[in-house]
Amino acid sequence: MASPASSPTRLLYDVRVRAVLYQVVAVALVVGVGFYLFGNVSRKLAEQNIATGFAYLDRPAGFVISQSFIAYDSGNSYARALLVGIFNTIWVSVFAVVLSTTMGLIVGIARLSRNPMLSLLALLYVEALRNVPLLLYLFLWYALIIGVFPPVREAWQPLPEVFLSNGGLIVPSLRWSGAHSAVLAAAIAGVVMAFVVAGVFRRRRMESGRSQTVWPFVLAALLAPPLLAVLIAQPDFVVNWPERGRFRITGGVQVTPEFTALLVGLGLSASAGIAEIVRAGILSVGRGQWEASRSVGLRDRQTMRLVVLPQALRVIVPPLTSSYLSTFKNSSLAIAIGYPDLVMVSNTTMNQTGQAIEGIAIFMLVYLTMSIAISLFMNWYNARVALVER
Amino acid sequence: MATAAEMDALNLSRAVLPPRRARSLTSLKPYFGTPLNALITLVCLWLVYRVVTGAWGWLVTRAIVEGGPQACKAGAGACWPFLAAKLRFMLFGFYPYDEHWRPALAVALFLGAIIFSMIPRFWTRALLWLWLAVPILCGVLLYGGVAGLPVVTTTNWGGLPLSFMLSFVGLALGFPLGVVLALARSSKLPAIQVIAIVFIEVVRGVPLVSILFMASVMLPLFMPDGVTVDKLLRAQVAIIIFAGAYIAETVRGGLQAVPKGQHEAAAALGLGYWLAMRKIILPQALKIVIPPLVNIFIGFFQDTTLVTIIGLLDFLDTVRASLRDPNWQGIAVIEGYVFAAFVYAVFSYGIGSYSRFLERRLKTDHERSPGR
User: Fold this and answer.
1) Residues B79/B335, Cβ–Cβ less than 8 Å
2) Which of A180, A341, A346, B81 is the most exposed place for a label (fewest CB within 10 A)?
3) Which residues in chain A touch residue B298, judged by CB atoms under 8 angstroms apart?
4) What is the 3-state secondary structure (H, E, C) of chain A?
5) Which of A107-111, B97-101, B187-191, B209-213 has the lowest mean pLDDT?
6) What is the value of ipTM here, to two decimals?
7) Residue B163 belongs to a domain
8) Hey, is the C-beta of B226 within 8 angstroms of any chain A C-beta?
9) Does B180 touch chain A if contact means CB atoms closer than 8 Å?
10) pLDDT category, B179, cuts 50, 70, 90?
């Protein structure tokens, strides 16, 4: 008689065998469905005579993009057009994140105010923004901008050389050169240096237990590199003044109404969520912390900065990360009001080349990569502010 | 026992009674306690006054109540005739005019069923049957083809019923998908875990717009020859996939909140994986995630507006189409958007308050809420 373990029915009841079996079935299913769909797609593409591959990226795009931060004209390649779209997406997202964080912080603290009037108004702000779809707000802001401001020919001039019309806001700009880029890079280096110097002083204070005046050194570290760069590279300051033409205003830097509507829409909608996050974070710090801090003699502002905020940040940062991520992803709604972000440029590209799969694959990949990058950065920051336990 | 006089002598009565604190709204201290507070109160009052008088003037005193587009163009207030003229189009889109009672009845049925299921007294097994019957009934009403109702194809569906349908079906079918994905992600089998993680993270890492694009452009290419997928169905599939991934993460949170002892106790009783999940783990996990799921539902209801981008006529799009009507073009833009915002806000706020109610009701633990 065969041993019970080797009979096939007994084998099926072995947990380890089953685990392997389940996984093999799942993988086979996924691969099989994938192959089947891929077969359908390639057959259909061949039938419809649609080209495949990414060769089209090198061909001239042939369409105009209303806003770009890198040199671009319609003779440039599709790849460059997509790059313009990526920059536009990042640009509007960064501004929206700054706006939403600022507004969210203010409103979140106002929600906790002891003044019932103020906390009620903050609550109304949050509810009004949370209960109406973002897309509706985008359309509304855009309609308001187009409807309230005069046409370009009758543009308002709130300040000399500043033009405000339904074609957007136009302000004088600096003619940019390599020397300016060098100064900008030096300024960024200065910020980094200032942080490093502050860190060194903090470590020294921790070790020696003596406090000393820090701010002159930090200020020097902050300002020295850009000042040096100005002296060495000697950038010339040529201002690009806007000029009123017959039909449009040329020169200067233009902030388009699409950009403004998208920025305001994204920023305000996210700020409602952030206000709730900030409020929950501050409430999560027990009242005892406030009392203990006061009893060791710290002032209210010091209590906030040294005791409450560091603990509240632990609670705030993870949901804040998802808020930033969704702001970034929601910037794809740009296509509804005509801001040339990545999705809109991809859409134009897909319509012109007919290569939908490649177009969608590119922008999904870009979004995925940037989402992962943002979460990695925020996770790193979160690990820094997390409570260090024994 | 001490008399009142004795207590008074010992100063006990004061010691026992907590000091009375002014908590009533009539007390002016929180409003005008300090100079800064007084300033804040005054600024807030001024703001409220401006907004209320402005809104009242626009909606009522300066409003245009009678007349057509010309009257509205000349006036400076809200244009009510626009709403009256376009209301049915906004609500039902291009659904045949004479058949409007069908989507109206379907929406009434749907909302009635929702309100009915919101009341805890009716939380029984019969509710499941109700929710099996109501969507089918609504679908039959909208599509027709039985009992002498003329067929209305999905290309003519639009407006509020479409928005409700996309979000409700998205949640109803996204929920089982989400539970399966959550179980797969917390499974001990690495291959299954990886498949779930890749699916969830990819869907959550890209915007809904891109999934809608993918469904509308790529889904037809994936299908075998001769099979065409209705435009509405494509958007619905996209929303289900999107909903599934987000629900999966919420449910996973619930699964993690179930103490390990529950798993061990189930195993000790000799329950297998599926039985333990069905009888022990999932009932507890799902109960925890009901309030966040309701919040997710608000999000989906608002996110269905994105289907306008791929050319479906949902409620927001019917409103926008009304604004573009040649007779009314450029006249009642703000009115249209404000009306749409009002409708969305009423539903979202309603579901939101219900979610807060549920949270209080379902809270069975005795944890002290933090910070208070």
Assistant:
1) yes
2) A180
3) 131
4) CCCHHHCHHHHHCCHHHHHHHHHHHHHHHHHHHHHHHHHHHHHHHHHCCCCCCCHHHHCECCCCCCCCCCCCCCCCEHHHHHHHHHHHHHHHHHHHHHHHHHHHHHHHHHHCCCCHHHHHHHHHHHHHHHCCCHHHHHHHHHHHHHHHCCCHHHCEEEECCEEEECCEEEECEECCCHHHHHHHHHHHHHHHHHHHHHHHHHHHHHHHCCCCCCHHHHHHHHHHHHHHHHHHHCCCCCEECCEECCCCEECCEEECHHHHHHHHHHHHHHHHHHHHHHHHHHHCCCHHHHHHHHHCCCCHHHHHHHHHHHHHHHHHHHHHHHHHHHHHHHHHHHHHHCCCCHHHHHHHHHHHHCCHHHHHHHHHHHHHHHHHHHHHHHHHHHHHHCCCCC
5) B97-101
6) 0.83
7) yes
8) no
9) no
10) very high
Q: Does A286 touch chain B (CB under 8 A)?
A: yes
Q: Which domain does B195 fall in, by range?
A: 95-362
A132 chain-B contacts, CB cut-off 8 A = 302, 341, 344-345, 348
Whether B249 maps to a domain, the answer reads yes
Distance CA B131, CA B110 (A): 9
Cross-strand pairs, A170: A163, A254
End-to-end CA distance of chain B: 36
Q: Quick one: pLDDT at residue A1?
A: 43
Q: Taking CB atoms and an 8 Å limit, are B333 and A143 in contact across chains?
A: yes
Please give the average pLDDT of every successive group of 10 residues along chain A, which has 390 residues. Answer: 57 78 88 87 78 76 76 79 88 92 91 85 91 92 84 76 78 76 87 89 84 83 86 77 72 81 92 92 87 89 85 85 89 88 87 83 89 82 67
- To 5 degrees, how large is the angle CA A217–CA A221–CA A224? 120
User: Which of A22, A107, A109, A115 is the mutation pick for testing B, counting most B CBs within 10 A?
Assistant: A115
User: Residue B117's domain is classified under what CATH number?
Assistant: 1.10.3720.10
Residue A48 to residue A354: CA distance in whole angstroms: 10
Q: Does B219 touch chain A (CB under 8 A)?
A: no
Residue B241: what pLDDT? 92
CB–CB of A138/A333 below 8 Å? Answer: yes
- The whole-angstrom separation of Cα A64 and Cα A66 is 6
Per-residue pLDDT at A137: 92
